[in-house]
Design brief:
heterodimer; A: 505 residues; mainly alpha; 3 strands; globular; B: 175 residues; 2 domains; disordered N terminus
Chain lengths: 505, 175
């Protein structure tokens, strides 16, 4: 194990690796600081720039961008009460009141250092859990893999937005898209009227379209951004170390909460920060300060949402199952470089997961330094006019799509999915299940069919193994429970109306 | 002590506000969108199911053919879309107040879509760098940028940036 950790750190001997980490951190801060752009969009936009890079450099750059974008989301949340990412909403509840009190620097310092502590602690958990999990997963058969993929998809679909029904529709759309192309087992072309579709939908152009280009249309819709005014930001380097001593239990607890929630597919950084904030408020000696500028609230929110980054990487690396849109995009980036995440990765290419662990640890001091030293510059990033951001994102999408295959086909795919993504978002259909289903669709189908070949067409193979049975039960419950809750709520409402009617009579 | 500056959003000036207000914005009830989108999706998933049924059967009767898994997906999705469609219809007739979805600046959004499609179609003829410069200028204009200096410098700067990064550094061949 020590050898493997050293292997991970040794990757930093190549100057391109620390350079990639630095570039990823800077870009991540910039993307995170701009409201509307987030880690998913940032990672998707960066992929085209990594095509020709070494796989290790690419993955370190992408991971550091992912982590830094979660850091950066807090900046605009604290300074302009406009969270750069959904996970930074709870940070704004206490961060912005501190800014109004003239303590923006204190809020930024607490958020940046708490983020770093969150990443550090959660990476220790990632290291301790991902390796045994991958060893355990080596025993999985096709039924367990099918059930695991189904659990991932179901949880993402039901947790990603308010309506499980719309999440289910999104999952269906993604799975249908995943079946386009030559059938892996029989070689029959499916839903492919043109040879360009024989290899299925190219993942990167679909990602660029759904996540980035659709956002461009929303920016056009929003029009020019409002002007901002500058105000003094003091105290960023004036937070004593003992402040973090008083926050140590909040930081540790929130990091654990963030990591555990991050591991659950679909839950992600925003749920982690909400849960952690609520727990911190409950356990605080000064709960009345929450929402009015509590540093405990900022520490809890930021350490949890950054811990969720490492949490989301655990199922990706150990099982090959992405648990969030950003990790689904990262799986696409890994595949471009011929890396297949999953249990075999630790045995065949240990340098990849261990370099990721090392880069997360190395990124902590780098990102804390960049965050503290450049706080005033990151604050300015939120001032970049929205029309310019929209145009730059659109141009990178088009050029990036072209560069993915050196042909026009991916450009057309990006354009089509950009418009589709805009429509889907208007109808409140979540995009994350579509991407996850597109990534996991082949795995789901292959293992389903393989299991039936083994069982000679008998479906009892799916309930003969306890592990598969439990996983399938979780998948069913993830759809059934919200539906039951919905029915119960409606029945209660009807009963309430009838009671009022009887009382009036 | 660091005394650098932070930015805080200021209320837009009255003239900007009134200009924004004067721009066309449409509000559509979400249920109408759900019903319309549900109907379109029913047609698309229905044709997907039809195509899946037409796929060849497996040689071995006990194994799954190329069309069996897509058929399962299609049936599941059809059920979900049908439920959404029906709920939408029930809400239209039963509920008086509906959640509204806003479409601000719809003309500019459609124009942006058309420009992107047109430049995608003519990218090979125009050349990638020229196409991206035109795209950036037009998109900035559609997104509300009216300052001439920005409309000239950002597209040129971006075209140069794309040339430096993609062509010189990454060695991508563009048309």
């Amino acid at each position: 194990m020590i050898e493997n950790i050293l292997l991970g750190f040794s990757a930093f001997a190549d100057p391109m690796v620390p350079l990639g980490l630095l570039a990823g951190a800077l870009l991540g801060y910039m993307i995170g600081a701009v409201p509307g752009l987030g880690p998913s969009l940032g990672v998707a936009l960066l992929i085209p720039f990594t095509y020709t890079l070494d796989p290790l450099v690419s993955i370190v750059t992408l991971v550091s961008l992912y982590a830094a974008a979660e850091y950066g989301g807090a900046i605009s949340a604290i300074l302009v009460n406009s969270p750069g990412t959904a996970a930074a909403v709870t940070t704004s509840w206490d961060g912005f009141p501190l800014t109004q009190q003239g303590k923006a620097g204190v809020a930024l310092n607490i958020s940046i250092v708490s983020s770093g502590i969150g990443i550090f602690i959660s990476t220790v958990f990632l290291f301790l859990t991902a390796v045994p999990l991958s060893e355990f997963a080596l025993n999985f058969g096709p039924t367990a893999y099918f059930a695991l993929a189904l659990v991932g998809l179901s949880l993402v679909s039901t947790l990603s937005n308010g309506s499980p029904l719309k999440g289910g529709i999104a999952m269906g759309i993604g799975l249908a898209l995943a079946t386009v192309g030559l059938d892996a087992q029989t070689g029959v072309p499916r839903f492919s009227h043109s040879p360009e579709f024989f290899e299925g939908f190219p993942l990167v152009p679909v990602l660029l379209g759904l996540f980035a280009l659709s956002e461009v249309f929303f920016m056009v819709e929003a029009g020019p951004s409002e002007k901002t005014k500058s105000q003094p930001m003091s105290g960023i380097f004036a937070v004593p170390l003992k402040t973090f001593g008083t926050l140590k239990f909040h930081l540790l607890r929130s990091s654990v909460i963030g990591y555990v929630i991050g591991v659950i597919p679909g839950a992600g950084a925003s749920i982690a920060s909400f849960v952690s904030y609520a727990v911190a408020k409950k356990t605080s000696k000064t709960p009345e300060m929450f929402g009015k500028g509590s540093i405990e609230g900022i520490a809890a929110s930021e350490s949890a949402n950054n811990s969720a980054v490492s949490g989301a990487l655990a199922p990706l690396l150990a099982l090959g199952i992405p648990g969030s849109p950003t990790t689904a995009i990262m799986i696409g980036a890994l595949m471009i470089h011929g890396i297949q995440p999953g249990p075999l990765l630790f045995a065949t290419q240990p340098e990849i997961p261990y370099t990721i662990f090392a880069s997360l640890w190395v990124s902590v001091p780098v990102m804390v330094f960049i965050g503290l030293a450049g706080a005033r510059y990151w604050a300015k990033v939120a001032d970049v006019p929205r029309p310019a951001i929209a145009a730059v994102v659109a141009a990178i999408c088009m050029m990036g799509a072209y560069a993915s295959e050196n042909s026009m086909f991916p450009v057309y795919v990006t354009l089509a999915f950009g418009i589709i993504g805009y429509i889907l978002r208007k109808v409140d259909i979540p995009l994350a299940p579509i991407i996850l289903a597109l990534v996991l669709g082949e795995m789901l189908e292959t293992n389903f069919r393989r299991a039936l070949v083994i069982s000679n067409g008998e479906f009892d193979i799916f309930y003969s193994s306890p592990l598969t049975l439990v996983l399938l039960l979780v998948a069913v419950l993830s759809f059934a429970l919200p539906a039951l809750r919905f029915v119960r709520k409606k029945l209660n409402q009807r009963r309430h109306v009838q009671e009022i009617y009887h009382e009036e009579e | 002590m660091n005394t650098s500056t932070a930015s805080t959003r200021k209320q837009p000036k009255h003239s900007d506000h009134s200009q924004k207000k004067s721009e066309l914005a449409i509000q559509v009830p979400m249920v109408w969108l759900e019903v319309l989108f549900g109907f379109i999706l029913l047609v698309i998933v229905g044709s997907y199911l039809y195509e899946a049924i037409k796929l060849p059967s497996p040689m071995n009767a006990k194994s799954m053919g190329a069309g069996d898994f897509p058929m399962i997906i299609a049936i599941g999705t059809l059920v979900a879309v049908f439920v959404m469609f029906c709920i939408g219809l029930v809400k239209i007739f039963k509920e008086k107040e509906h959640e509204l979805v806003g479409f601000s600046r719809p003309v500019w959004v459609v124009a942006a879509m058309l420009v992107l499609v047109a430049l995608g179609a003519f990218m090979e003829t125009l050349g990638a760098l020229a196409a991206s410069a035109i795209l950036v200028a037009l998109l900035m204009f559609f997104a509300g940028e009216r300052r001439p200096l920005q409309l000239i410098t950002v597209p040129l700067g971006l075209a140069l940036g794309i040339y430096a990064v993609f062509i010189l550094a990454l060695g991508v061949y563009f048309p």
